[in-house]
Amino acid sequence: xxxxxxxxxxxxxxxxxGALPDSAAHETALRRFxxxxxxxxxxxxxxxxxxxALTITGFFTKSSVYATLVLASFxxxxxxxxxxxxxxxxxxLSVPALISGANLVCTFLSGHHWPFGLVIVFVLGCAAIVxxxxxxxxxxxxxxxxxVTLATGAVVTGLTLGWTKGGQVSGQVPNWLTSFxxxxxxxxxxxxxxxxxxxxxxxxxxSIVLHMTxxxxxxxxxxxNERAAQLAGVRTRRIWVAAFAISAVAAASVGILLVGFTxxxxxxxxxxxxxxxxxxxxxxxxxxxxxxxxxxxTVLGALILTLLTTLLVGHGAGEALQEILFGVLILxxxxxYGRDQRVRDRV
Amino acid sequence: MTGxxxxxxxxxxxxxxxxxxxxxxxxxxIVQPAFASWNQVAPTLGTMAPFAIAGMxxxxxxxxxxxxxxLSVAPLIGFxxxxxxxxxxxxxxxxxxxxxxxxxxxxxxxxAINGVMVARLRIPPVIxxxxxxxxxxxxxxxxxxxxxxxxxxxxxxxxGSIGPVPGALVTIGVPLALWYVLRRSAFVESLLAVGDHxxxxxxxxxxxxxxxxxxxxxxxxxxxxxxxxxxxxxxxxDSQTFGNYxxxxxxxxxxxxxxxxGGRGGLFPSVMGAASIFLLENLLTSLHTSAYFIQxxxxxxxxxxxxxxxxxxxxESTA
Amino acid sequence: MGLKVSDLVKSFGTTQALRGCSLDLRAGEVLAIMxxxxxxxxxxxxxxxxVHRPDxxxxxxxxxxxxxxxxxxxxxxxxxxxxxxxxxxVPQQSVLTNIWLGQDGLLRRRVPAxxxxxxxxxxxxxxxxxxxxxxxxxxxxxxxxxxxxxxxxLVRAPRILILDExxxxxxxxxxxxxxxxxxxxxxxxxxxxxxxxxxxxxEEIADRITVMRSGEAVATLNRGEATTRELVALMxxxxxxxxQMHPTLDTPAGGASKHHVVLGAxxxxxxxxxxxxxAEIRAGEMLGVAGLEGHGQDAFLRVLSGVPPVGGSVxxxxxxxxxxxxxxxxxxxxxxxxxxxxxxxxxIFESRSILENFQVATLDKDRxxxxxxxxxxxxxxxxxxxxxKIRAGNRSNPIxxxxxxxxQKVVIARWLAMNPRVLLLNDPTRGVDAGTKRDIYRVLSEAxxxxxxxxxxxxxxxxxVELMDRVLVFREGxxxxxxxxxxLTRSRLVASYFGRVEQA
Lengths: 347, 319, 504
Description:
The complex is a heterotrimer of chains A (347), B (319) and C (504).
Chain A: H1 29-36, H2 39-55, H3 62-87, H4 95-111, H5 116-140, H6 145-163, H7 175-180, H8 194-212, H9 214-224, H10 226-231, H11 236-262, H12 273-284, H13 295-314, H14 319-337
Helix pairs in contact in A: 2-13, 3-8, 3-11, 3-12, 3-13, 4-5, 4-6, 4-11, 5-6, 5-11, 8-9, 9-11, 12-13, 12-14, 13-14
Chain B: H1 2-11, H2 15-31, H3 38-63, H4 73-88, H5 96-119, H6 125-143, E1 148-149, H7 156-159, E2 161-162, E3 165-166, H8 167-184, H9 187-196, H10 198-203, H11 208-234, E4 236-237, H12 245-255, H13 267-286, H14 291-318
Antiparallel strand pairs in B: 1-4, 2-3
Chain C: E1 3-12, E2 15-25, E3 30-34, H1 41-48, E4 56-61, E5 64-66, H2 72-77, E6 80-83, H3 95-100, H4 113-125, H5 142-154, E7 160-164, H6 172-187, E8 191-195, H7 199-205, E9 208-213, E10 216-222, H8 228-236, H9 239-245, E11 261-269, E12 277-282, E13 286-291, H10 297-304, E14 311-318, E15 321-324, H11 328-333, E16 336-339, H12 343-347, H13 354-359, E17 367-368, E18 371-372, H14 374-388, H15 404-416, E19 422-426, H16 434-449, E20 453-457, H17 461-467, E21 470-475, E22 478-484, H18 490-497
Parallel strand pairs in C: 3-8, 3-9, 6-7, 7-8, 13-20, 13-21, 16-19, 19-20
Antiparallel strand pairs in C: 1-2, 1-4, 4-5, 9-10, 11-12, 11-14, 14-15, 17-18, 21-22
Helix pairs in contact in C: 8-18, 15-16
């Protein structure tokens, strides 16, 4: 775009401003990554890991690293939907309510001797309905997604707490669920926590879906320019509804997994995810406008936040300092990646 | 019928909320006759004040348009409350004549930082104020990891009575009076114009950035008043109490009939919005409804209010 | 108190909007600026009003060089008031607010309330009868909203008044009253820069006329010095220069009438009360749609693309006779491709790669076992890279790494790739360089030769004259005339834009 790439002075009317120099066509994968990839995030993960390993005694053991990865997995899975929703220009604040709600209802129903498979189907089905309502309402009535999801989140919280008598639940969860999200769990005999492996598989699958399938491409098109996407035949409302539905189901899944992790249902277990799921996406470098970013960035964002938390906790810093740093990180990363258009360009 | 209702509401967007408030007062009184007794008025208003002020504090950001929103109002209210209880009380700065100006300046300055991030740095308002939300919540938690009870102090009157006058009339009245003054000045008109269509305002020579920054600063200032009112009510400092103000504040603005995309609304409608939510909660409580159902009601009210608002402003904003 | 502009230069990305524009506005005169769409008039206005900053050049007001018009506020401060082409109102606010917009400080009101009302009523009263100062602007008809914008400029009592197409939305009565006001202002020494596409208005009000072409002021004439024909010649430029830029194309294979009708408009109304439009579009023909900006050609093209018209219908040939096109999605399914006008807002996915921008409308063609195969897309794209001579570097680079012309080629490739039966293009050559234009013309002609019905809206007279089998000219929301190949000359076409029928 700049004049320097043009072989003739820009004032010449016959100037044919070319594309990038031809050498750009043969750019190596490495150089492309440096220019467009999440280099900053990757470096941050490595630096944070080294810092943690060097300054906190006992971190560099299998169990500690696995424990950190398990925590990152919860955050990463909770942020699946947030990533997709942000890619199309939305935001989903019903995530914590769905995590807590699913967590409670799951425990509650298994306490009432529902078959666990049915419990999962029921909980995820309800979540999908909530997501559908979110996506449809936002798109059909063009109302701010922030407020709509905040509202549905409050309804979900109220209903699930009311139903489970204030979250006083106790139920027996299957052993496989407990070991699934346990740091000392084994995945088909391999000595890695199953939830970490699952997260990795999800990340790969989601990357393939986003980048290599038609629905994924249409999702990006919708986020990059909804009007152009419509003109190119993309049914953008379906995309919005699907994105919020996936977000809700992913959040509910975290709620169910957390039952296994903590062994019981707990009101408010999803609360920390309200803004951390958002922070993972934003720190990863996915921007709130223009469909820039993907899930691999969120994976890095989740690792950064979890490592940072581990590091801070290890040094005796409280939740307070964590939150402050999260805020600063978000502002720094968004200041770099996603800024709005200037007023004078809209006259 | 719906068409007539919409048309009427479009002329007076706050009308719906005012009507709701009147109806709810009547119903509350029927259910619980003590509700209307004079000695109940001051405490009731005192309990409502932080909600109403949180609603007012969230309003200017919405009015300024461009996706404007201020998520940091709730932790800012908490921050002011904590600052007053833990840092000012018991020092020479604890007297109202020093404490109030200091706190208002702090609130306005934090709001102005939000405004600069939004207007000058062009960070989307949701993100900018979310960042502030995190930072402030962290600071709040750092200052009071555990709730701290306040020593006896002057704010007590604000939740009760100052002579015969309910103290809440002061805390709610000051932002309203300020807004009234600003309406007489050029500010509110400019704010609504910027929120309505910033490109037009810019082309007419308006300093769009200055107006937006001032709007966020005003929100911060009102939030500081909210923090003082909250202190009067709870007489303690707690980093957890402000949590539910986020939802209530947004719902109050939406229910008050402000255009959430900017250009239309005011502080009084937001007070009415907050009052209707408060009265609804009061009614449900006195009917022994569970706290959980009250939360469902919050969500439902917010949902309906935002759809109602979208219906209300659709034609005008596309015109 | 005059205004002098010397050697203004301004470019947006790779598009050069002004290339050394100079003009001289004398005290107490009305100077009209005329020029085709895209000649740089609006950019000039936006620089003078402080919306855009020039890359180079000087502006002198009343003999003093104005150092820096950084914002509209600076421009207003030196005594310039501008009425923009778009109707810029704050819709939910009152008429009174709209008129005094931008005059106050952050807190301080510069004018007392009573005086505000009186002066607003007086100024608006010179343009329309019984102005309602307290109604929200959105509730007023278009003409009155435009009058508000004019009143906003007048109430500032400017030394220099700029009217950019300000009359286009005004009804006749209001326009006449505006001209009376302009006459009075001129007598008082105010200078007026008057930009209009309407020849009759310019003849009525202007003292002198400056003609702009391709970002430069090419001539200034006194009133009555030039005929319409000469003005048109100045605006379009001399034939020789342009002939080099636009190579004459082989006339597309004639006898289009032999082909069958693929798309038909029946009784289409673009606005209530307009004369209905009937038109037939045949396979293999190249049909131009044209007119002055905003006279209905754009709306007509959108109607063909499936957007429901105010009245009437569009039918498309199908397996069993013609049936109505219900929506843009329906049109797309039936092979009607629409290349939108605004590349940035309606075509390009800025954050996505070149290849993704190409394949978005034809993703299904690259699918194998559910996955979108990159190799297939690359193969398909290669065909168009050669066909359109796209200079695209690495296909994975963001589309924004390309020049505007190459971006446009990718967009056209996107739509050609779906093998459309009808290809609708909304000003596809706007803001692209000569070489790109040539490539686009060639590809469109080839498509037509293969039986695609090509319908193209163009703001450029020459490409219509040289490329099209026939041209539909729109005026005030109605079909004004149809010029067919044999009678299609530049002067006849431009004259028809201005509502005149010239004999061949």
